[in-house]
Sequence to fold (256 residues):
Amino acid sequence: MKPNKTVLVTGSTSGIGLGIARVFAHANYNVVLNGRTKSTLTEKLCHELDQLGNASVQFYPADLSKPDDIDHMMSALPAIDILVNNAGMQHVSPIEDFQTEKWDLILALNLSAAFHTTRMALPHMREQNWGRIINVSSVHGQIASPQKSAYVAAKHGLIGLTKVCALETAETGITANALCPGWVLTPLVEEQIRLRAERSGRTMEKESQALLAEKQPSKTFATPKQLGETCLFLSSDAASQITGTSLTMDGGWTAL
Ligand code: NAD
Fold:
């Protein structure tokens, strides 16, 4: 059956965002993919997702670190019923060496972008008295790790934004929640594993295992598909009273 709802997943050309978009496409939601630029890859992805279900799939290029790009995107798109704020990046460095441009970029992309998309998506959601806002935060929205100051600050901020949004919409059919994954094997994490392997001289496989062993008691990566299925659940009627929460999916990381 066609849900007749449109979901925007920001930063959905790879990793978690793509996994979430695939799950919604498969469940016959209209899907809007987003990444910085249009390319043969984005065309291929639209084609692939189009085959999964019987609703529409489109790609909208926008650099979400830029409020003007977000404005253009949100104004050009059809009304969004489910907003998944997923686009994000990482940079690893001690505070005293952290480049200020990187700090500004991570705050803009990982935090401010969600404020801008949310403020522009809410009027339609309020009008129809239904909507879902899902912010992909992180275990780093709940606890810290060294060398990730901008990321940790942004992800904590995103949980704060989620709570405010949940309170402001509490008497409506709109919910706002955050997802807090631990390690998920995506290009963002592969880059961190590559840096570790470069430093240690060990294989990527060995460094993957070491990475998991340090923090994630399950010693297993969560998958983009699992995050997608969780977003699908949060979009269901069963989840209508779940709002303002942070769903932790970290294999026990924060239970330590
Ligand atoms: P990824 O690098 O695979 O994907 C990031 C996506 O964001 C890509 O589609 C990329 O095109 C897009 N993007 C990057 N800069 C952009 C910009 N300026 N404008 C628009 N799109 C842009 O990373 P991922 O691991 O899939 O991460 C997705 C989200 O999940 C991020 O917010 C990340 O912080 C969060 N997260 C990831 C993990 C993990 O272990 N991978 C854990 C917790 C949270």
